[in-house]
Every structure is written in structure tokens, then in C-alpha cells.
Amino acid sequence: MYDLIPLGKRAKEAARILATASTSQKNKALLCVADALVSQMDGILTANRQDLDAGREAGLRPSLLDRLSLSEDRIRGMAEGVRKVAALPDPVGQQLEGKTLENGLKMTKIRVPMGVIGIIYEARPNVTSDAAALCIKAGNAVILRGGKEAFHSNLAICRVMRDAFQQAGLPQDCVQLIEDTSRETATAFMRLNGYLDVLIPRGGGGLIRSVVENATVPVIETGVGNCHVYVEHTADLHMATDIIFNAKTSRPSVCNAIETVLVDREIASQALPMIYEKLKEKSVEVRGCPETLQILPDAVPASEEDWGTEYLDYILSVKVVDGIDEAIDHITQYGSGHSECIVTSNYFAAQTFTDHVDAAAVYVNASTRFTDGEQLGMGAEIGISTQKLHARGPMGLPELTTCKFIIQGCGQIR
Amino acid sequence: MYDLIPLGKRAKEAARILATASTSQKNKALLCVADALVSQMDGILTANRQDLDAGREAGLRPSLLDRLSLSEDRIRGMAEGVRKVAALPDPVGQQLEGKTLENGLKMTKIRVPMGVIGIIYEARPNVTSDAAALCIKAGNAVILRGGKEAFHSNLAICRVMRDAFQQAGLPQDCVQLIEDTSRETATAFMRLNGYLDVLIPRGGGGLIRSVVENATVPVIETGVGNCHVYVEHTADLHMATDIIFNAKTSRPSVCNAIETVLVDREIASQALPMIYEKLKEKSVEVRGCPETLQILPDAVPASEEDWGTEYLDYILSVKVVDGIDEAIDHITQYGSGHSECIVTSNYFAAQTFTDHVDAAAVYVNASTRFTDGEQLGMGAEIGISTQKLHARGPMGLPELTTCKFIIQGCGQIR
């Protein structure tokens, strides 16, 4: 069996050095990585073709092959992503709190790196450089475990990064790839206590459930988004239609796209045909509750299962509700705590919704598609946390750090 | 088998109400709890006598019986603890960040309650009211699972609290006690995903390991402290002696007490006899490395196991080191990341130690015993986190909350 302990030990050693590396050292190394990704593009593309050939042979779906596929442009994009991370402010060393206690002790609470971060991800090879760059900028060593479909691409990208780090005077082992894509090794990775300070899964619901179920190291759950738009009866219906159209169709495969629309009964017969017409432009399948079907006879009947489903596709479930209380109850029952939106003109309705809906991002009159680190001005993100511990919503560099109390005295005892 | 789902559901319902309860409502309820603990003291003491009788019959150690035991004074202390929590500032609703984005979206990041917090703890019945008060002040419902030795005491305290909440207009189910102390139910509690937003174990190393190993809900690890004092060769030896004496003997059973002293070779023959003499006042057993034994022939030889042991007792291991690098390496290898101290007069030694030692609290010239929420001016604490995710060091009210992004627009789409 593949032994993860040596990787863990090397990562810890690298993390000790990275923890006190200066911002300019880390930036220099990241720029070196960006340059190397471009200058060594050919090797990466060759490795990628190997994965693509194997993928075609294994009968992978075209959408999966597309995610897997790299091109000159995509590699330039990856390099650009790494440069953007180098340009972000360094969170390490930031003073979060500071005071002098009554006994004269000087206490400061500062941001420090986590240590070693594990990332477990699926078919997109660009995650290899994106995630590693963020972890390293925040002073952490990273151990990557990518999907087997992208193995050769990941390995090639990882080698380029490791060489670039060494060239820039940082340890190669800042980034390590687990060179075994078996399920057993993935499970062992999730239980690498003593070496991993946090494990972040990036991928679909199945991967995330497996990590939550099996991990004994601390985990940040990311990504599942069963998001809603609630059209309250005072809503501007044109605005509601535009928001729903944008939130459903601008990129249905991502977690901040919506899956269900809730509409107040009072305006349902006016609002639903407008929304339905607009959604036809992108051939969205509407699955409705019985009342919706009375208004939109062409819609498909929704089953109980639909309310809990993240379609990630051109499908939308629609439910007529009695008012804001029923809308909030529905969201509480079925939502995944990612992004929720009310469209309303009523001050108190907006307040009730933002106060009572329990989600990472709660919107009034705007598309849920803004739940994204870049969009919210936080810079590149490593994922969107849907748990409440440590980080909630888009996670940028500060979310990849922890803190340390430094207490300076002159002999104080208790 | 005892079914935790109904408790989970009731807790979630209570949490929805608590999440938007005003500070004054919560404070009123907590003061009501404090009054009720005092006015219904007799019932609690009767229940406690039941536990003590059973404990004596089961042959519990005197120290355990002492922890279990309540008195009029101790109950008044518990009530006082609850009043102190009521007096702390409410973290809920605090704005953590706020800005207007280029597209006009107004984004604010605010503190909100976690939801439902689980606490799993051992023999001290005072944890029942202490932990519940903190959770509720931060707007969370709490589910408690105490040790079987304290079952009747916990149940009586919990009933008093539930009645007081109801009287004050908050749901009884803000606090629930799991009325089954079997191991199976404890494990099921650790896997109550969908109901528990976080689980905090409070107790010894065995309990914490069991939670880390078995839990599938997010966990905050607390409490194991293998702490060190390093006497650097420029240290004021009187100061070093006082700090070591205080950190070892003022309360050896707590996690911020030290277990090992590291001394620079250069000053060992002068420092060790001074430290040894002082420790004799409290009959501390010293377990030394071979060099220590040459200087202190009466000391006991330390085994490899000693360096990793949290004695929680009047025992101290002592090692002579070659200098600061060896000291930091030793701490990196054996420390639990809780509290570490250097005694020094050298500016650069102080900086090297605080930069390179990876622990929740790093001290220069002060006793590790200050790692405590009250001592650091954070108010009452629910525990001391030794993990890096979410919270590190003493955890007060803010650490029992999460955040939510509220994004207000006027029709923005992406």
C-alpha cells in the first residue's frame, strides 16, 4: 500500500520553512511558477493528451473530457491565475488583536499559516496550480490528490511547480502530489492526523459526502448549492425575471446557480408566465408544484425529490407559496445553506428574509451568481464553504490561515 | 436504541428562534437561569447526592468524587458564572466587513449564531450550566451529553435551566440533555450530521481522541496540553525559576500547566539546582535526561515516553539542550500546540522563538498559566482549542458564532 507518512513528514518540514518565508520570497516563487507553466507548456500538453486518450478509451462523457482538456490558452490562464495570487495581499503576520493586560502582559493575536493543507479534487487539472498557489501564498505546504482521469496532467503540472519552487529558493515539497489514485489511499489521506491541518474537498456531492463520512482530520465542506429565488408579492416582476434567468442559465453547472423558484400565490398567475417565457430562450425545463401546473400547463410535475435536488443543469423547479413564512420554511427545509435570494420592494420583507434565512449568502434583489470570491472583491477563492465552522461562503487567503497568541512579559506569574 | 433525531429537530427549531432573539431577551433568560439555580439548589443537591452515593459504591477515585461533588457554594458559583456570561457583550449581529462593490451591490459580513452546538463532557456537573450559558448567549441551541457519573446532577441542572428559559419566554429546547449515557448513543451523537453544526468535547485525552476518531460532524478539538518552558542561556534564572514553579505547581491538573523544562547546556549546572530546590517545596518529581541526572543525581531518569506525556500531576521532565534550535525542534516534535514559553534576555532569541514555535500561545518571560479566556480578557471560555481550524487558543463567545454575507442590490445580474 502507498505510504502517505513520508509525504506528510516532508510537507511538515516544508511548512516550517514556508511559515516564516517573507512575502517577497513567496511572490517570487509564484511568479517563477507562472513563467514555468508557460515555458514548459509542451510537456504539460503532452501529458494532458495521454489523459485525454485514456479518457476517450474509457468512454468518458464529452463534458468530462472538456473539463479534463488543457490547451495553450488554458495553460496561459492557469499562469495568469498564479500571477493574480502573487498580487494579492499576504494575510500572514496581520495583527488581529492586541492589548496590554492589567498585569502588564502584552498580548497580540496574529495570523499565521495553517501548516499543511490537503486538497482532494476531481477532473480539472487547473485546480492543481490554482489551489497550490493559494495555499503557498498563505504560507502553507500543500498535498494534492487529484482524480485519476487527470493523473498525468496533474503530475506534469506538479513537477513544473516543484522545480520552480526549488529554483526560487523554497522547498520543492511545498507542493506534493499523491501518486496513487486508489480509493484506499484517498481514505488514508482523509485520516492522516498529525500531518494534515485541514482537508478541503473540491468536487461533486459524492466526493464531499465521502470526505465528511471518512475523514478524521479537520475538513471544510464546500460547494453543494441548492439555491432559491423567492419572488415576494411586491417584487418588480421584470427584475425578478431577469434575476431568475441569470441565476439559472448564466452557468448552470456551478454551485451558485439556482435550482428552485418560490413565488407568492398573490402574483403567481402574472409572474410565472413571464418567467416561463424568458426561460424558454435557453430551453429550461420547468418542474412545477400542482398550482404551478395550473398556470403553466406545459410544465413537468415536480416530485418531492425535486425540492432537494441540485440539478446543475437547465432544469428549474417552481413552487407557489402562501407568503414569506412558507418561503423561508421551504428554504430552511431544502436549502443547502449556500445562496438564497428574495426579490421584493418591501422593506420589512427584505429584513425578515435576511434575518431568518440561514445561508452563507443572503441576497435582496440580486442574482445568487455573485457568491464568488472574485465577484465579492476577495480575490481568488479556494472554494465556497457551506459549513459554519472556520469559514462560510467564498474562502480566500485569510481563510487558509489560523492565528497565534504571542504574549510578552517580564516575569509575570499567576 | 435511544433516538437522537427528535432532540436534533427540537434543537433546530429552538435555534431558529434563538438566532433572532434580542440581546436583552437572552440576558433576561440567563439571569432567570442564575436565580433558578440558587432558588432550586435543594433539588440539585439531592440529585448530586444520588450521583455521589452511586460513585462511592462504584469505587470512584476521591479526586473524581471531588470533581463530581456540588455544594451550596459551588452552585452559587455556577449561578455567578451564568450572570457573568449575561454581562458579556453579545457577538451576534456584529458587522465584520462591509463595502459597496463596483456594480453597486452593498455587501456586509455579519456575525450570526452557529445554530446547534453539541457538548460532550465528563464528570464536572458545573459544565452543564457554564457551557449552556455561553452557547445560548451566542444565540445557539445546545445539546449536552454529560458523563454517566454526573447523570442525576446534570438532569436536575438541565431541568432548572429549561424551566427558567420557558419562564423567560425562550424555548425550553434551547438546552437539552441526552438522557442516555451509553457509548452507542455517544457515537450516534458524534454522527448527527444535519442537526449538529459543531461538536465540542470537554474532557481528557481519551474522550477527545474518541470524538476525533468517530465524529462525522465538525469538531473543535480542545484541551490536551503538553507545554514547555525553555530556559535560554541569557535568562534571568530567578525569573525562570519562578515561572517554572508557577507553571508547574499552581494547578498541575489543567492543560496550561507545563510538563517539560528545557535548559541550555551553558547554564544547566547553575540553573537546574535552583529550579530543583524550588520544586521541592511542592515535592515535584523530576525526570531528567542523562545530562540532567549528572547535575541532579536525585532525579529519576526520563524515558522517551516522558517527553510526550501530559502528566497533569506534580511531575516534571527536564532536558538539557544545545541551544534554541534544539529547543524548538524538541517542542515541534513533542508539543501539543497549546502553550510554550521561552525565558530569555536576548531580543533575537525571543523573536526566533515566537516566530518558529507553532502553538496557540507563545510566551516570552511569563507563565503558561495565562492561557485562559478570563486571564486574557476574553471573558468566560468554553474550552481551549488546540486545532487550527475555526478557533485556536481560548474560545469565548465570538468563537461560538459563524458569519453570513448579506448582499443588497437593485436588480444586479452577472
TrEMBL record, chains A, B:
Principal EC category: oxidoreductase
Alphabetized PROSITE patterns for the sequence: PROA (PS01223)
Reactions catalysed, as given in the entry: L-glutamate 5-semialdehyde + phosphate + NADP(+) = L-glutamyl 5-phosphate + NADPH + H(+)
Subcellular location: Cytoplasm
Pfam families, per database record: Aldedh (PF00171)
Keywords: Amino-acid biosynthesis, Cytoplasm, NADP, Oxidoreductase, Proline biosynthesis
CDD domains (UniProt xref): ALDH_F18-19_ProA-GPR (cd07079)
Assigned EC number: 1.2.1.41
Aldehyde dehydrogenase domain location: 68-284
GO biological process: L-proline biosynthetic process
UniProt pathway annotation: Amino-acid biosynthesis; L-proline biosynthesis; L-glutamate 5-semialdehyde from L-glutamate: step 2/2
Keyword GTP-binding found: no
UniProt GO cellular component terms: cytoplasm
Main location: cytoplasm
Family: Belongs to the gamma-glutamyl phosphate reductase family.
PANTHER family in the cross-refs: DELTA-1-PYRROLINE-5-CARBOXYLATE SYNTHASE, GLUTAMATE SEMIALDEHYDE DEHYDROGENASE
Biological function: Catalyzes the NADPH-dependent reduction of L-glutamate 5-phosphate into L-glutamate 5-semialdehyde and phosphate. The product spontaneously undergoes cyclization to form 1-pyrroline-5-carboxylate.
HAMAP family: ProA (MF_00412)
Protein name listed in UniProt: Gamma-glutamyl phosphate reductase
Organism the protein comes from: Solibaculum mannosilyticum
Name of the gene this protein is made from: proA
